[in-house]
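Worked example

This section walks through a single chain of length 151. The input is the sequence exactly as stored; nothing has been trimmed or padded.
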Amino acid sequence: MKKRIPAFIAAALVATLASTTVMAADDTTSAASVPSAKPTGPSEAVQKALDKRMKNVLDALEGVGTPLTADMFSAEFTKQAPADQVQSALKQLHDSVGSCKLAGRVHSPAPNATAYLLDCQKAFIPVEIAVEEKAPNRIESLLFRASFWRM
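Given that input, the structure is written out below as tokens.
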């Protein structure tokens, strides 16, 4: 039986999702009369912050670079999961799945969140992360989804 990754950060890691509006048009409405939707998702600055924070998390997972510190997380996040607890959970995760690297990023409609896929030695792990929209863009949520084990 394969090891399962414990759901160790779930309580503190609630992703902030932007609400979306779905516009329905009946069959008689022409495409020209339907207003176009604004592009959604993180701004360029927020996307850079998301990439930077995900790199911080990945470096901590791999045990390289600077360990995670409280100033990388929002106050609300650290109330529920202090940085040292997150660091410890990342060590457990690394022990379960081995070395990891970023495999890709999934576009999100949320203005301050996105998802990444980690390619680890033993599994693929989806990760969702959200940051504050304004500098210093601290992590507001971090969620490691159930892994997809390699066969």
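What to look for: The two ends are 12 Å apart (CA to CA).
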